[in-house]
Amino acid sequence: MIDARAFRQTVGQFATGVTIITTEVEGAIRALTVNSFTAVSLDPPLVLFCVGKATKTGQAIDAVKAFTVNILRQEQQDLSTYFAGGWTHPLPPTFEFLAWNGGPRLDGCAAAIGCTTYAIHEGGDHWIVLGEVVALHRTTCTTPLIFHGSRYANLGATFEREILVSGF
Predict the structure, then answer these.
(1) pTM for this structure?
(2) Which of 128, 16, 14 lies closest to 72, judged by CA?
């Protein structure tokens, strides 16, 4: 038997970017912080994210027809904490959702991927949501928000080096 806490700590050693998934359900924008996001396919262009079945979005997953993956910059750590439900301040951080052909997009994010819901699969206590990409938005972000070992991290000093690969 695998201990759930040990499992979480172990997979937490895999550094990830941080996203906020936004969707509109019954006329209201819902947003949640997600680091379980990945690209799946180029043809068709597919991405996926996972959402806990017990969350508000997870409980309304059948109503989610489209969603936006908002990839966060390091400066947006407060938004990540807020939409993850860990915000302890009396007032929320400042944010704005913009109307966009990909769905509600978080203003100031490093990139956004607008999707229509392609498929939803069960995955234990989570839903695995596949989306077909219908819109892209990108800025020139040099400082992505990173999550590692159950805390926020940064890439440290940036450097360039030439990598020579033979045989390709």
Answers:
(1) 0.87
(2) 16
